[in-house]
Design a protein that fits this description.
Layout lengths: L4 E2 L8 H18 L1 E3 L2 H10 L2 E3 L4 E3 L2 H10 L4 E3 L8 E3 L3 E4 L7 E3 L6 E3 L2 H13 L5 E3 L12 H12 L3 E4 L4 H15 L2 H6 L3 E4 L7 E2 L1 H13 L3 E5 L2 E2 L7 H22 L5 E5 L2 E4 L4 E3 L3 H17 L3 E4 L10 H16 L4 E3 L4 E2 L4 E3 H19 L5 H4 L1 H7 L9 H10 L11 H6 L5 H15 L7 H10 L5
Parallel strand pairs: 2-13, 7-20, 8-22, 10-11, 11-12, 12-14, 14-16, 15-17, 16-19, 19-20
Antiparallel strand pairs: 1-7, 2-4, 3-4, 5-6, 8-9, 17-18, 21-22
Length: 478
């Protein structure tokens, strides 16, 4: 099992606030309803007792249906890696951070210039994920612009699974692609039942704001739920644009929308592993631009984490991004602050926390290395301070006495690695040593480490027979 710590020390809401947000969301689902363009979904809701107006396409979901769906959603979910040591447990306030985004651009590792992402980047970022120790999972974070649209899904998942043993999650673009990806995963797992037993892939659908479910994503949701595989149902309201400018209103809307997707998954397959979600943020009211690195985004996602904990269901949240165009101080403080806040809230599955720049439109290999240190510090904060007889150390303090030191004590050796976080990128040497090593700044060190990983790290790959089988069966793989 991959390492995790329990968050929850940071709380946006009081208990009374949580109940108020819940009641606001119930009102929206019961009295306002969700507009569902997907006829299949409307039929499922109608057959289950929801009030469905097929002409307006509005579905009003009763409180009892909401409560039943929440009760039937598993409170605990293991998302597996191809190796068991990378399994992650989503429950309570357990915290894991990973990648995300599905961006179209990357900063080229050799030139530093922005270019379109390609299949080699899907593989490259998966390899980086496999090598960096604080990344818990790989949400496929870029789009391969160099393959035909009909081959995008199979290429994204194939090259992800070939290059990391950690859990792989991703969005989907076509129904044919979704079915091919599931079949490929079954081939790798050794059958459909083995994949359900150890799901090393999962999928993302998306609710639209305000209160809308469109056709294609909803078809994907229904298909994945019928297969019994894990699915996330995040909503992406943008405060001030397609949701209220008030953070509480945006959280109430996000809560209603994500519950809408979760309810549909449970109506399709009661007990299906389903992850409540948020990718919400704010709009810059001066420019009309989506803001990825805003602290308000972190507060919204922290509030959604509390709602998921109230319902006792796993949550997929967002934190760790930046709106900077390069890996600079802005990228550092925006990413660190948003990741820290959402992690401390106890969000289970925090995606987008590695490598993202420029309103989540551009990736950076170097930033993934920087973020690995930043997330390590956030996880140390989540871990908190353990208080017991051993850690209070009164016997050792008494033994050393006034004016002594603790350097030669076995207590120091026994506890230093669990008490202190040792960053891998940060420079903590005296200036003279730093100068002798070339006076390299953090970006230069990150650049060198990213190049080393891509050149030297050995990803899991597939056996020769399995790789041959997959490439013959799915000729669109590049």
């Amino acid at each position: 099992m991959f390492k995790h710590f329990k968050g929850g020390s940071f709380r946006v809401f009081s208990d009374a606030d949580i109940k108020a947000v819940h009641e606001a969301s119930v009102y929206l689902l019961e009295k306002v309803g969700i507009k569902m363009h997907n006829e299949q979904a409307r039929q499922i809701f109608a057959e289950s007792g929801a009030a469905v107006d097929h002409e307006s396409r509005i579905v009003k979901i009763p409180r009892t249906m909401i409560e039943d769906a929440v009760d039937s959603t598993p409170s605990s979910l293991v998302l597996c890696g191809r190796e068991e040591k990378y399994d992650i447990l989503l429950e309570g306030a357990n915290v894991h951070l990973g990648t995300g985004g599905t961006v179209l651009n990357t900063l080229d590792l050799e030139t530093g210039h922005k270019r379109r992402t390609e299949v080699r980047d899907v593989a490259g970022y998966a390899k980086m994920t496999d090598a960096l120790d604080n990344i818990a999972f790989f949400v496929i974070n870029c789009y391969p612009n160099d393959v035909p649209a009909e081959d995008v899904d199979i290429n994204r998942f194939y090259h992800a699974l070939a290059n990391t043993s950690k859990h792989v999650m991703g969005g989907i673009y076509t129904m044919e692609g979704l079915r091919a990806v599931i079949e490929m995963a079954q081939d790798i797992a050794g059958g459909a039942e083995k994949l359900r037993e150890r799901p090393f892939v999962s999928f993302i659908t998306l609710m639209m704001s305000p209160l809308l479910m469109e056709v294609t994503y909803t078809d994907f949701l229904i298909e994945v739920a019928r297969r019994g595989l894990p699915i996330a149902t995040p909503s992406e309201p943008l405060a001030g644009a397609n949701s209220p400018v008030t953070l509480a209103g945006t959280i109430a809307l996000n809560n209603a929308e994500s519950l809408g997707g979760l309810i549909l998954a449970q109506l399709v397959n009661r007990g299906n592993p389903t992850i409540y979600g948020s990718t919400s943020s704010i709009m810059d009211m001066r420019t009309g631009t989506y803001m990825a690195g805003s602290i308000e985004s972190a507060l919204i996602n922290a509030g959604c984490a509390q709602m998921a904990q109230y319902y006792k269901i796993p949550i997929y949240g967002t934190g760790g991004m930046s709106d900077s165009k390069v890996v600079d101080a802005q990228a550092g403080y925006e990413s660190a602050n948003t990741a820290m806040v959402v992690a401390l809230s106890g969000c289970n599955y925090i995606h987008d926390a590695f490598g993202l720049l420029e309103f989540c439109t551009t990736l950076s290999y170097e930033k993934m290395v920087v973020d690995n240190d930043s997330v390590g510090m956030a996880l140390r904060a989540v871990k908190g301070v353990e208080v017991n007889k051993e850690t209070l150390a009164t016997d050792i303090i008494a033994e050393v006495g006034p004016g002594g030191h603790f350097l030669d004590k076995s207590h120091t050796v026994e506890h230093v690695r669990s008490e202190f976080y040792f960053p891998k990128l940060a420079d903590r040497q005296p200036r003279s040593v730093w100068e002798e090593a070339g006076s390299k700044n953090a970006f230069t060190r990150a650049h060198e480490e990213a190049r080393r990983i891509l050149a030297e790290h050995q990803p899991p790959g597939f056996s020769e027979d399995l790789e041959k089988k997959l490439r013959e069966k799915y000729p669109g793989i590049k």
